[in-house]
Design brief:
Blueprint lengths: L4 E4 L2 E3 L5 E3 H11 L2 H18 L5 E4 L9 H12 L8 E6 H4 L2 H9 L6 E5 L5 H9 L3 E5 L1 H5 L5 H16 L3 E4 L5 H9 L4 E2 L9
Parallel strand pairs: 1-4, 4-5, 5-6, 6-7, 7-8, 8-9
Antiparallel strand pairs: 2-3
Length: 207
């Protein structure tokens, strides 16, 4: 295998000492009414990392918030990428399937297509209605949930569901990203099933 890039996962430690990461942070920001401002901040961080990393590396923005596709955020993202053509095709947004399926979101993603922005979809529903939004995406990927990955070798149901998601991705000419890979045997089994990318402790700790 080879290194694809990095995933940026924003986090915040509240006054009580509790760490909020990714999905938890997105929900907290939405309740506080600062989700759009935070989304713009994490997009700015991602653009900064793209400027520092080798041009062959991608950045996955692991902040699954609907606010990433707020008009103010997408306008800012388009402005930043328009002035940095070398970043084209290197940024991936991590979004829940429920967000990708909304009409307004699909329109905004289509408008960002000229910048080759990819979308990694969390928890897609394996029905025609659930898969339809992925068909419209210019560059798409499917995240394989960590529960399926951790149980891949011990639970036949988890392995079947993981392979089904990988096959859907292959049928759509999309990438597939397996989360939380801890064992080399799981990595090998997923790779043989056609999974494109993996992340987790097997590849090193967080920075």
């Amino acid at each position: 295998g080879q290194l694809f890039g990095i995933e940026l996962i924003p986090s915040w430690i509240d006054p009580q000492g509790t760490e909020h990461r990714a999905e938890s942070l997105a929900r907290t920001a939405e309740r506080a009414g600062i989700d759009v401002a935070l989304a713009q901040r994490v997009v700015a961080e991602a653009i900064g990392w793209l400027s520092e990393l080798p041009e062959s590396w991608a950045v996955v923005l692991g902040f699954p918030s609907p606010a990433l596709l707020d008009q103010a955020v997408t306008d800012y993202l388009a402005e930043q990428l328009a002035s940095r053509p070398a970043h084209g095709g290197r940024l991936w947004l991590d979004l829940p399937a429920s967000v990708v399926a909304t009409p307004g979101t699909r329109d905004r993603l289509a408008s960002l297509g000229r910048y080759q922005i990819g979308v990694l979809v969390r928890d897609p529903i394996l029905t025609p209605e659930g898969i339809d939004p992925l068909v419209d995406l210019h560059r798409a990927g499917i995240r394989i949930p960590d529960g399926f990955v951790r149980s891949f070798l011990v639970d036949p149901r988890a392995a079947t569901l993981a392979r089904a998601l990988v096959q859907v991705a292959r049928d759509l000419t999309a990438i597939s990203l397996a989360d939380s890979i801890e064992e080399f045997a799981v990595y090998v089994a997923l790779a043989r099933s056609g999974c494109t990318l993996g992340r987790g402790p097997l590849f090193g700790g967080e920075l």
